[in-house]
Specification:
Blueprint: H1 9-14, E1 22-24, E2 34-38, H2 40-53, E3 59-63, H3 69-85, E4 94-96, H4 101-108, E5 116-119, H5 122-134, E6 144-149, H6 152-156, E7 162-165, H7 168-184, E8 191-194, E9 197-199
Parallel strand pairs: 1-2, 2-8, 3-4, 3-5, 5-6, 6-7
Antiparallel strand pairs: 7-9
Helix pairs in contact: 2-3, 4-5
Length: 206
């Protein structure tokens, strides 16, 4: 299972049953569930480093839900790199959405002036670009945008989205392999973390 919140009743119930379970994401029950995750903290760091490298001085963030570990970790990594670089990230340049296009579009209307934006999912990034255009801003000329996931819509978007790619198929394959191992040996509970990488496209090309 995947895309769960840190307080999730389904996971609480599963933890009480003797059922082999693998989560695709971090788990609060590492001794009970196997887990396959990606390095979301590094993903946020990658996005921040890229915006700084292309010259952004007023970066902003549309993060994911902070009661999900993936959302919180992407935000953490982004903030860490900016802090290390001495670049401010005031509250007026930060909002948190729910990984949907609608939230991305609505939240950029609330942001203070930004010249670079990390949006913690490609779906939200598509909405964010639409919201920026509604404000009369061009992407990437006025605001560079970095998404997260590398879904097919990222490459198909206008402009194509620079994004942090997580290996979605690799996660699924690794989770299935882990589940088979867990079925064969219920004591073999393990955790695996897969790397992420930046995919550069036109939404940050200056």
């Amino acid at each position: 299972m995947s895309a769960y919140h840190t307080q999730d009743e389904l996971l609480d119930r599963l933890a009480t049953y003797d059922v082999p379970t693998v989560t695709m994401g971090p788990t609060a029950w590492p001794d009970v569930f196997g887990s396959v995750m990606v390095d979301n903290v590094e993903g946020g760091r990658i996005a921040a480093r890229h915006l700084l490298e292309i010259g952004c001085t007023r970066p902003g963030l549309v993060g994911g839900p902070q009661d999900t570990q993936s959302g919180a970790e992407r935000t953490q990594g982004f903030r860490e790199v900016l802090a290390e670089a001495g670049v401010a990230l005031p509250d007026g340049r930060v909002r948190h959405g729910d990984f949907t296009e609608a939230s991305g579009e609505a939240l950029v209307a609330e942001l203070d002036d930004v010249d670079g934006l990390f949006v913690a999912s490609d779906a939200m990034a598509v909405g964010a670009v639409r919201g920026l255009r509604a404000r009369g801003l061009r992407v990437p000329q006025d605001v560079a945008v970095v998404g997260y996931d590398d879904l097919p819509l990222a490459a198909e978007h206008d402009p194509p989205l620079t994004t942090v790619r997580q290996p979605i198929e690799g996660i699924a394959v690794a989770a299935l392999d882990m589940l088979v191992d867990l079925i064969e040996d219920p004591t073999h509970v393990s955790t695996s973390t897969l790397p992420v990488e930046l995919v550069r496209r036109a939404s940050t090309a200056r």
